[in-house]
């Protein structure tokens, strides 16, 4: 049976990552409310938004296996978790990088895989595998910003223009110059899609290109 896969994202970076897995897929950008609940942690927000994205797409593509992810960066400041948003303008982007200067920033990447209802109805009851309809995970990846000069901060923002990127940088571009340490199990999660965990989820539902 052909299994149709949908990536709930318009990000070219997530699309490129998923393509590495050797599966055919379509893409659709879900339209959801990404407002933060009062007191919501970065981890909880990343998980909730990834599930919301997947469910929004499943309503439109009920026959597809839906893959969705969402990433929320944060840093600890005065013993409090500070969420980093998309800056939107140069002034805010520079302020964010100054805030992150010489500090650890933690990226929580939520991942959700939804299985279409009735995906195994064509099989006899005795042959139907026990498949979990929703699989979720939150992966944490941390980066340590090095000590940046004001010139480096402004030069980076001018060159990369990361105004629509949470945290004000693109790790898949010049942003790698901003760090002196990376800490996590899957660097792909830093770009927005934890491939190791996703491969495991796909195998759980019988999707394995090398089998």
Q: SSE string, helix = H, strand = E? A: EHEHEEHEEHEHH
| Assembly annotation | single chain
* Spatial gap, N to C terminus: 15 Å
Q: What does the radius of gyration come to?
A: 19 Å
Beta-strand share of residues:
15-25%
**In terms of structural class, how would the helical and strand content be classed?**
alpha/beta
Q: What is the 3D shape?
A: elongated
Mean pLDDT: 92
Entry keywords:
elongated; alpha/beta; seven-stranded mixed sheet; 211 residues
Structure, explained:
The protein has 211 residues and is α/β, with parallel strands linked by helices. The protein is 30% helix and 24% strand. The chain has helices at residues 12-19, 42-60, 90-100, 150-160, 188-191, 195-204; strands at residues 5-7, 26-27, 65-77, 80-83, 104-114, 134-145, 179-183. Helix 3 (90-100) packs across helix 4 (150-160). Mean pLDDT is 92; it is low at 121-127. Pfam families: Maf.
Secondary-structure map with pairings?
Elements: E1 5-7, H1 12-19, E2 26-27, H2 42-60, E3 65-77, E4 80-83, H3 90-100, E5 104-114, E6 134-145, H4 150-160, E7 179-183, H5 188-191, H6 195-204
Parallel strand pairs: 1-2, 1-3
Antiparallel strand pairs: 3-4, 3-5, 5-6, 6-7
Helix pairs in contact: 3-4
